[in-house]
């Protein structure tokens, strides 16, 4: 049998009848890491199970969370369009997702509900479908250690208290976990946020806590 050359990364996971003639604009500036992920067949990707997710969070290795290859491709296409239409991802987040007219907090961190919005992660990682991924957006800053890039002990304690108060009465302690991305991993730097993952939560609770939010991945073709 003749040897087949590997496909260019931008053709992997794309039906042959939809192959573009050249690399799409939204993939031309991909870094080596994203090229490697997008160039991997979905069939070779294994979704992370809950114990693995909790372990990565516990050891601050959230850099090991990745999207399913075809989902990362869609994410790159989506964000490319956002920058063209809104000028930046931040503008889209503030104006369309958060719909905050003012970014000035009413009070201290976690003092007022109006300074916080809970939404689904628009483009979740390649994890067990039973795991629901939320992003908690805040108008107030949550301090990081300038040397490590991780939360200071004070901000860590404040986030932890909020998460336990908000989710602890509806979800077992072993079925939720939170993390705050390192600064180097953040895709949106200008709006403070952290992440909460929940294993198999009640759908009614999720609808209530997110005010019926639907992630963009479910809306984007």
From TrEMBL:
GO terms for biological process: N-acetylglucosamine metabolic process. One of its GO terms (cellular component) is cytoplasm. Transmembrane segments: none annotated. InterPro entries: DUF3605. This is N-acetylglucosamine-induced protein 1. It comes from Massarina eburnea CBS 473.64.
